[in-house]
């Protein structure tokens, strides 16, 4: 788990400690790290691996958290966003834990601490009842291309090449894609990939 809180660094550190050093005897210690500094997107990019969790504590207008959350699917991570006041757009993160109270002093109260304590409790409930983590078998939902059996997925450009291809990172790993449909790309661009081809750039909106 990677924890970020640009304006409230102690929250990121507290979350990491909760998971690394459980206060209840017999509970599993879990790897968690608080990331701090001026370039949180860069830090999460080089740290996170598919299957990791990135949890952020921030307001909905925090640009670094917005950037990390929108790149989460390309990195293959599960994103959790805790905050208060005006909520982020629907779909901004995989899980949003939000308090409606806009009081800017709220992060200094125990309300946020209560939320991530509950998150810790729920995590251990899932470990004790592994059936909760098992996804039910699903019939074909036709969410993949019937021609090539591939689905459109978000990817982040690692490097653009002069031969009309680019190396990208998606939840399934690094791969080379053809960029004929998108034109020039630069590292950090988010694109939609389908059947080995970059089919569109993803805007920041």
UniProtKB/TrEMBL annotation:
GO MF term set: carbohydrate derivative binding; isomerase activity
Gene3D superfamilies xref list: 2.30.30.140, Glucose-6-phosphate isomerase like protein, domain 1
Keywords: Isomerase
Tagged with keyword Isomerase: yes
One of the GO biological process terms: carbohydrate derivative metabolic process
The keyword Isomerase appears for this protein: yes
Family: Belongs to the HupF/HypC family.
Protein name, entry field: Phosphoheptose isomerase
Lineage: Bacteria, Bacillati, Actinomycetota, Actinomycetes, Mycobacteriales
